[in-house]
Amino acid sequence: MIQQTKLNKAIKMGLMTWAISSVAVSAAYAQETSEAGADESYEKIAVIGSRGAPRSLSDSPVPVDVLSEEDIAGVPYTDTNDVLKTLVPSYSLERQPISDGASFIRPASLRGMPTDKTLVLVNSKRRHRSALVQIGGSGTQGPDIATIPTSALKGVEVLRDGAAAQYGSDAIAGVINFVLKDNEEGGSFSLDTGQYYEGDGTQYTVSGNLGFALGDAGFLSISAQHSDSDSTNRGEQYCEDWWCLTDESNPYLSDPSFVAGLEDANLGGENIVQPWGQPNTSGTRLFFNSGYEISDTMKFYAFGNYSKSEGDGSFYYRYPGNGTIEDLREEDGSIYNPLEKFPGGFTPRFFGDITDYSFVGGLEGEFANGMTYDFSGRYGSNEISYTLKNTINPSMGADSPTSFNPGDLVNEEMQLSADFTKYADLGGYSEVLFALGVTYMEESYELVEGDVDSYTAGIYAGADPFGFCDDGAATAAGQAVITGGSTLDCADSSDPVYTVVGVGSNGFPGYSPEYSGTYERDMFGIYGDASTDLSEELYVQGAVRYEDYSDFGSELVGKVAFRYTLNDDFNLRGSIGNGFRAPTPGQQGTTNVSTRLPDGLPVATGLFPAISPVGQALGAEALSPEKSINYTLGITGDIDDLNITLDFYQIDLEDRFYAVSTLDVSATEPTDPTADGYASDLAAYNNYLSLAAAGVEGANSIGGVNYFQNAFDTKTSGMDFVATYKMDDTIFTASLNYNSTSIESDASEYLNEEDQFDLENASPEWRGVLSAKHSFDDLTLLVRANFYGSYENAIDSSAEVIQEYDPSVFFDLEAKYQLTDNLSLAAGARNLFDEYPDKDGVLVDGGVSSDDCCGAVYWSANQVDWQGGYYYARLNYVF
Fold it and tell me: In Å, what is the CA distance from 56 to each residue of 63, 65, 123, 196, 474?
């Protein structure tokens, strides 16, 4: 049914694009035949940061980074996210090894803002979002940049400024535009392989590109990439106060069946039951880009992609007696324990299959009156199918399978746009460039129901499922099993007959019918833009945009920017504008129950939609758009062979979208008002009652709950400095970013002290990249230094224990030798000296307190990479 729906939408999209193209062809052809000799104006088509003709970086009124194909090829990463992190200091990236889908689609940020506040474009057209909603913090749902292979890229443009008035919702922090290759002949082939110093994480990537001419007036460029990466482990054996696998006094360690089960469950090497590191991943990605000049004033274009990738990683280890692996009284009075399936306990394995595809088509050109046009349509889909293995549905007892399909997530978008530009002489110093556009977009987010066993509430979701006991005494049924030899003791409150265990596939319960379904909305938008030189020294630009959403109403935003020439070498530039971001259908509808670590202890935590009965019962309010005001002021200049840009910025974000801190849930009613912690215990019990009243299956097994909310206001301030110096055969580049975020309203209603502290302090404020490239005839050497400043992380919910992290510097080294005019061989190392950030943990009262548990050595959410050194070799052939 889902595939049929997608097919119908794809057909609909194709027909709409064909219709638009046909109308535009007819209109342009009619004008072409009636008037001849139109000026060529393709260079005036919209580019990033401006709706007019392309401008040089130093002439741009806003800061833009342009990464060339050579820059991209010189970074030894498969994931395009990592390439951006390496080359753009204000772009940061996390690795979250035990975080559901975030293990495969990694959260990133630009200028301290999550990626859903950065608009992603491909060939200047909006890129569709991933189906994954990050379950914590900012709840990011942005495009999966990893689906864009580096082999398809001619370049990348990064606009580091708010641009919602020009490009629409999401462009609060900036815009990233991926420019596809447009070669009509030749191509390239590349083979890359490497491994971490630790001997794991072996990776290989095969990629290529081919260009074809379409007659005398067109091109077709096809790019492909296949990559495969093995998992890594930077953890140690599981040993905590509640369960330790290195303590010889542990009675299970002398049990042969436990040891055998431990070996069977080994997933991280050396019997490490819970590895910490990157997951196993593999993927095949295809992109095409094409264009055809129908006439001197008209061009048809189309591009799109297909990507299929998969990954698998571990969840938290379930040890015997952890609340999941418990004795259960069966119907015949005997005792069952999941250790019969998993003698050594178990570590759930999580698999994600990601399918991503898109198509964009349109016509661009110029009418006889000099007005340019761009009619376009796009369709994009991203789907994640989950599988969970090596686990159980505890409530099903012995009948539970060990493999589940908990459901799928599907995000789809369809958009139609028309953009126009026209130069007009209004009698000023120069012509005024006017830009106008209209757009219509439909988007949907679907949670597809999992298999029944993944969410069903089995008989052990409640106490005494067979009616053996009544008020501490055996019933007739209970007496019958006792007569048959059962050890049943109804007077003993700890007897397995009273044990209640969790509902659903443990680690990731499936989407039930109650929490499955589709969230949809549509949007209409219109914008206007004008730019001109008011004098030889002063260039100004202004933009206004109106968008109306079926679920949020309308927003009107604007922006003004300028560039002032101080002298022949230096320019002053700046901008001010407001922006917005409408919460996505996915952020409104996503539901999840997973294991999280409030106060460092594993707890089953449920995330529920703010508009759901559960969210409403817990006090959530319906979501609303985030709103921002952006300020930028900078200077650009050239001093002989030295080029510099320095930009200061501030982003004031109102009603910031965030997940509230985990609210405790307990099915135990507190009875002593004089006891310590009575108020918090009562609040936890009331949360349980709210879940039960809302019909949440297994509410008594959930230890925490949260939801997304427009929670508080923030101010993000920073500075970007970029310098390039050329000296003979050597190029030096330096990029430095400072970024600081502060909470500007009372957030205590939504965030505990730890989450507030981490929002302001857990990311390095200083980030820098310095590189030098020197050529010796056929040999090229590249040295790069990646700098991360100090940062802090709160360890407990009261933020009384703080860990301070020292600055880190990682060096990269690469040597490339040109074997022939077409063939080159490169070898090098990332993190040459095998540096790591500080280990997780602070000495407190003679013990170690940490933000992670269960064998983690490094803070898993650290933006500073903790995988160690990596060496590689790359063969590249260009023809």
Answer: 11, 11, 18, 40, 85
Q: Are 302 and 360 in contact (CB under 8 A)?
A: yes
Q: 440 burial class (0-12, 13-18, 19+ CB within 10 angstroms)? A: middle
Residue 490 lies in a domain: no
Arithmetic mean of pLDDT, 264-268: 49
C-beta of residue 816 within 8 angstroms of C-beta of residue 825: yes
Mean pLDDT, range 419-441, rounded to an integer: 95
> Is beta strand 517-533 parallel, antiparallel or unpaired with respect to 592-596?
unpaired
Average pLDDT of the segment spanning 729-737: 93
Q: Which pair of structure tokens corresponds to residue 55?
A: 């401008």
In a domain, 427, yes or no: yes
Domain limits at 396?
A: 2-236+272-314+348-463+499-665+702-878
Q: How many domains does the chain have?
A: 1
In angstroms, the Cα distances linking 170 to 162, 165, 383, 520 are 9, 10, 21, 18
Q: What is the DSSP letter of 28?
A: H
Structure tokens at 318: 């379930």
- Burial environment of residue 10 by CB neighbours within 10 A (0 to 12, 13 to 18, 19 or more): middle
Contact by Cβ (8 Å): 826, 782? no
Run of H or E including 454: helix 452-455
Could you tell me if residue 782 is inside a domain?
Answer: yes
The answer to the question of residue 726 being in a domain is: yes
Q: What's the CA gap between 417 and 437, in Å, rounded?
A: 7
Cα 362 from chain centre: 29
- Neighbouring C-alpha atoms within 13 Å toward the C-beta of 612: 28
Q: Is the four-CA dihedral 32, 38, 42, 48 of positive or negative sign?
A: negative
For residue 46, the model assigns a pLDDT of 31
Cα(305)–Cα(287) distance, integer angstroms: 4
Beta bridge partners of 355: 308, 383
Residue count of the chain, please give it. 879
User: pLDDT averaged over the chain?
Assistant: 88
pLDDT (tens digit, 9 = 90+) per residue, 519-557? 999 999 999 999 999 999 999 999 999 999 999 889 999
Amino acid at 542: G
DSSP category for residue 833:
T
Region for 353 from its dihedrals, namely left if φ exceeds 0, alpha if ψ lies in -120 to 50, beta otherwise: beta
Distance CA 358, CA 365 (A): 23
Are 588 and 519 in contact, with CB atoms under 8 Å apart?
Answer: yes
Average pLDDT on 34-61 reads: 47
Q: What is the DSSP letter of 50?
A: B
The model carries a pTM of 0.88
- What letter would DSSP give residue 782? E
Residues contacting residue 821 through CB under 8 Å, at least 6 positions apart: none
The alpha-carbon radius of gyration of the chain (Å, integer) is: 29
Q: Which residue has the tokens 């109106």?
A: 546
Strand 91-93's sheet: what is its strand order? 91-93, 108-110, 113-114
Q: State the distance between the two ends of the chain, measured CA to CA, in whole angstroms.
A: 45
CA separation, residue 695 to residues 414, 490, 590, 756 (Å): 35, 29, 17, 32
The separation between CA 351 and the C-alpha centre of its own chain, rounded to angstroms, equals 17
- Assign residue 830 the CATH number of its domain: 2.40.170.20
What tokens does 872 get? Answer: 């590689």
At 14, is the pLDDT very low, low, confident or very high (cuts 50, 70, 90)?
A: very low
Question: Could you give the CA distance from residue 719 to residue 460 in angstroms, rounded to a whole number?
Answer: 57
